[in-house]
Amino acid sequence: MKRAVLYLLLAVTLLVPLVAGAEDAALVARGAYLAKAADCAGCHTAPKGGAPFAGGLGMGSPFGTIMTSNITPDPVAGIGKYRFEDFARALREGVAPDGKHLYPAMPYPSFSKIDDDDMRALYAYFMHGVAPVPVAAPPTRLPFPFDQRWALALWNLAFAPSGRYAPRTDRDAQWNRGAYLVQSLGHCGACHTPRGPAFEERGYTESSRRFLTGGTNDHWFAPNLTGDPGAGLGRLGAADIAAFLKSGHGGGQVAFGSMVQVVEDSTQYLNDDDLNAIAVYLKSLPARESAGAYAPRSLAAKVSAQALRTGEPARPGAGIYLAYCAKCHRADGGGEPRKYPRLAGNPAVLSAETTSLVRLLVEGGNSPETRGGPKREKMPSFAGQLTDLQIAQVITFARTSWGNDARPVTQRDVTTLRHALHK
Ligand code: HEC
Ligand code: HEC
Ligand code: HEC
């Protein structure tokens, strides 16, 4: 009898820490998943093999380059001394424990919506799942007056939203999950919502008219994600959007520019339920800020097909397209599934803002590489082969052929951007 009690005691003393350990491990694992959804590593890791989360990535902003912090649990160089309350305040309010105000290049206006359970899981991950790196990140040096961090307190009062995500009772659980991921952790609006004169996002929920209607950051234009059938997601199905986020390929489009990193670092790791929830939420957004149009059976579409077939291209861009682009994107603009994007009807090609198109042609790029997705393909740079005028002509051709209808690109658009990019 005595022995039985002893065994029982022994079993309890051994099991309690084991169970608690398992709970902690589950919390840390959930935090790791949420850190992917929020792409903490994408911003907090230096390019070319920097240690994960050790900071040192320079982020371009209209005020100068802002350096990301070391957020590993090192007590001196990183955030090892942060209590949970410090961590939550930095993420939600943009204030570090020493009172330092963070620049909104850290998406705390979106992270303010992260709920308490997720915040605890993130904290557990950063304290117990991330390796400490004892090297301080380089400091941010902005010119006066942008180096006056105290002024950000005023900015926060004027622009930063506060309060957790409030589920909408007129929508179901899947829609609310999608809205939560897009608005909080995913901080999709940081790129896809236009910014105002003080760098503020013009809205943080679907109740704002400009929310997710397209924005330019660091010379990449992130397109309209509302239901606009021209340059928005109106003609894409929810399944196409989910596939695009998982593999960078969906509905004939291929991720490019700054979206490549988002897919590689973040969205490819989301589970199918979460991807579908995001797609359902995006598909619920009514068409706003409409631009561009696609009419594949229009007379204009037939004329451009004819011009390309007869080899007597009516427009200067057509000859350039046949010589330099048709090999991959095909003469009919149809692209090749799982390899090259279609340009016919591609919303990114139809956007009112053409920064991304010009930049892609000047710099070239590559499609994302993901677990289980198609392999990486290259889009060449044409900076050395085509003049600014020719780049403008070939983009204009793509924007006005096969039924595409969007405003032309001028030589000046190209020259201005090349100056800004120093390319
Ligand atoms: C879009 C880029 C971006 C993303 C995504 C991002 N951060 Fe940041 N973060 C920054 C920048 C930039 C700073 C530095 C801001 C400054 O110096 O004012 C920063 C600062 C911080 C700080 C303050 C550290 C200190 O004391 O200096 C913490 C903590 C932090 N981030 C945590 C996170 C976590 C956790 C995530 C993911 C949930 C995350 N960040 C995602 C850009 C980002
Ligand atoms: C760092 C900036 C950035 C962030 C953050 C970002 N995107 Fe993007 N996104 C872009 C850019 C640039 C493009 C245009 C290039 C392309 O089509 O791949 C794009 C394209 C897209 C497209 C294709 C749209 C089209 O019509 O061509 C979808 C869908 C999309 N993003 C969804 C999202 C979602 C959902 C999130 C949040 C989880 C998100 N993005 C976060 C920059 C970003
Ligand atoms: C060797 C094959 C190849 C050639 C040649 C090529 N491209 Fe691409 N293009 C790609 C790939 C791959 C992508 C996918 C995204 C990336 O690479 O960043 C792409 C993306 C694009 C996109 C963005 C659409 C999207 O959904 O990703 C446009 C616009 C584009 N190319 C236009 C052109 C034009 C115009 C030319 C000729 C001047 C051209 N391309 C030549 C392979 C090619």
TrEMBL record:
Binding site for heme c 1: C40, C43, H44
Signal peptide from the UniProt entry: 1-22
Binding site for heme c 3: C325, C328, H329
Location(s), subcellular: Cell membrane
GO molecular function: electron transfer activity; heme binding; iron ion binding; oxidoreductase activity, acting on CH-OH group of donors
InterPro entries, A to Z: Cyt_c-like_dom, Cyt_c-like_dom_sf, Cytochrome_c-type_DH, Membr-bd_ADH_cyt_c
GO CC annotation: plasma membrane
Binding site for heme c 2: C188, C191, H192
PROSITE patterns: CYTC
Main location per the UniProt record: membrane
Requisite cofactors: heme c
Superkingdom of origin: Bacteria
Residues forming coiled coils: none
Keywords: Cell membrane, Heme, Iron, Membrane, Metal-binding, Repeat, Signal
Protein's name according to its UniProt entry: Alcohol dehydrogenase cytochrome c subunit
